[in-house]
Design brief:
The complex is a heterodimer of chains A (67) and B (421). With 67 residues, chain A is an alpha+beta fold. Helix content of chain A is 22%, strand content 21%. Chain A has helices at residues 14-18, 44-53; strands at residues 2-5, 23-25, 31-33, 59-62. The longest helix of chain A has 10 residues, at 44-53. Chain B is mainly alpha-helical and 421 residues long. Chain B has 18 helices and 11 strands. In chain B, the strands form 5 sheets. In chain B, strands 1-2-3 form a 3-stranded mixed sheet, with no helix packed on it. The chains are: A alpha+beta (67), B mainly alpha (421). Chain A binds chain B through residues 10-11, 25-30, 52, 55, 57, and chain B through 68, 72, 75-76, 108, 111-112, 115-116, 118-121.
């Protein structure tokens, strides 16, 4: 799946606290996704946790359908 | 609530329940007193897990949400559910906690002003100073051989870092600031202390902001905020006071979050807050003959002094539970009962708050008092001493046999089983 943090982010850092393997906080204090944003399906639970706990609803997840 | 019989309390139609609230979703819940009567605030709220949201008539009426899903739904719908301060009870702050009590889009404008002070780069720049504070704090107790980690370190450390390096408050007054914070956020709170400290802090913040406006400090957050702009206009002093006040409180975690730094990986450490043990004693005297009469099989031996002592104890215990016994830190049963735990009286469930424990323990206490027996019960969250229906008629106290005098003891304790005193 493709995970991204939109500009609604206000740097609450809940995503980093809950899923540090997927998210980090950039130097300006905003949330970001490691690498190109592609996250393995077995990480879905962690992504869901971050998504549900984002106070700004700033995390977007796009499921990539296997061809 | 002065209803003594739980059955009556459960079946009566709720008084003060408005038409728009279903009766089963009405509770007389005081979100300050009831929560503060719980062992920790978390215990106070855990009792509601899995229940429907409910409405309370306290403080003019309010709804309490009971699940994360509901809370999230409300947070994401600021049109319907505002963040503004509605001023319930003594936690009401006379000003706006900026930006926490602002709704979108205002919230974002002010949060953006604060963000530059909190990214990882800002924390990294302070690493040396932060380590120095940690070392200084640890030095204060490291040679004593033991430490109460939360009180002596975790509850102070972030606050000192923040006050000293973000707000640039004077180090020599640190204990005063920590005292204010303690008064405002500790559990349970004394409402008068909380209010006094809140105004002391507000006054200090106001003077500090005035001072920084006149003499800005390089790299200081208050000085920086005073030079910020919102929608093209300068940030006002009042707005900076509100933001600094909020950050002062936000720097502190709730003390009773008792998860501790684990001693080693994979080991979970938690601090348990144990209530005090209170012991009541009433001396009595029984004649040698009366004691021997029992040995000889007498059924009418004169044990009146023991009966009197037991009665005194029972009264002391009942009064302690109902009215509270401040020197022994026993919270009044009436205060505790106003809250959500009335159901626990009838149906004790495992792993809830102290009310359940007291039910179990007092159940064993329903048998006739046995001379030197002791009853153990939690000092807060009492529920059911009123259920005791057995008469206070002491049977022959075997423990006292052979001793011409004795003590009739009763105990109130946090944890433990009923046993012999």
């Amino acid at each position: 799946m493709r995970v991204s943090v939109t500009d609604k982010c206000q740097g609450h850092a809940r995503c980093l606290a809950l899923a540090p393997t997927i998210f980090y906080i950039d130097d300006a204090g905003y949330g970001a996704v490691h690498g190109d944003g592609e996250v393995a399906d077995d990480q879905a639970e962690l992504v869901e946790k971050a998504l549900m706990n984002c106070p700004e609803n700033a995390i977007r997840v796009r499921r990539t359908v296997a061809s | 609530v002065t209803v003594h019989d739980p059955e009556v309390a459960l079946t009566s139609a709720p008084v003060g329940c408005p038409a728009h609230v279903p009766a089963e979703q009405f509770r007389h819940f005081d979100y300050i007193r009831d929560i503060e009567a719980a062992r920790t605030p978390f215990d106070g709220y855990l009792a509601f897990r899995g229940e429907k949201p409910f409405w309370s008539d306290v403080d003019g009426g309010f709804w309490t949400l009971t699940s994360a899903a509901q809370v999230r739904e409300c947070f994401l719908d600021p049109e319907a559910f505002s963040n503004r301060n509605v001023g319930l009870g003594y936690t009401a702050f006379p000003r706006t906690m900026n930006p926490d009590q602002l709704d979108p889009p205002e919230h974002t404008k002010y949060r953006k002003l604060l963000l530059p002070y909190f990214p990882p780069t800002a924390a990294r720049a302070l690493e040396h100073e932060i380590r120095a504070i940690a070392r200084r704090e640890i030095a204060a107790w490291k040679d004593t051989g033991s430490v109460e980690f939360v009180d002596q370190f975790a509850g102070r450390f972030p606050q000192i870092v923040f006050l000293q390096h973000m707000l640039h408050f004077p180090v020599e007054e640190m204990e005063t600031f920590i005292g204010w914070e303690h008064d405002m956020v500790r559990h349970p709170r004394d409402p008068d202390d909380a209010r006094r400290s809140m105004f002391a802090l507000l006054d200090y913040m106001t003077r500090t902001v005035d001072e920084r406006a006149a003499h800005p400090i390089e790299g200081d957050m208050i000085s920086g905020l005073l030079q910020g702009t919102v929608e093209g206009r300068p940030v006002t002093k009042d707005e900076v006071i509100d933001m600094s006040f909020l950050l002062f409180l936000a720097a502190v975690g709730t003390r009773h979050l008792a998860e501790l730094e684990p001693p080693r990986a994979g080991v979970h450490a938690r601090r348990h807050d144990i209530a005090s043990v209170v012991e009541f004693r009433v001396p009595f005297r029984v004649s040698r003959d009366a004691v021997d009469d029992v040995e000889r099989g007498a059924k009418d031996s004169d044990w009146q002094p023991v009966k009197d002592a037991a009665k005194e104890l029972a009264f002391a215990e009942d009064r302690g539970v109902v009215d509270g016994f401040t020197p022994g830190a026993i919270t009044s049963f009436l205060v505790a009962r106003c809250g959500p735990s009335s159901r626990d009286v009838e149906e004790p469930r495992p792993s809830t708050s102290g009310a359940t424990t007291s039910w179990t323990l007092f159940t064993s206490d329903r048998s006739p008092i046995q001379g030197m027996s002791a009853s153990l019960s939690p000092t807060s969250g009492f529920a059911s001493i009123m259920k005791r229906s057995a008469p206070l008629e002491p049977s022959a106290p075997r423990d006292a046999v052979g001793s011409p005098g004795g003590m009739c003891g009763s105990r109130q304790a946090a944890r433990g089983r009923p046993g012999r005193a």
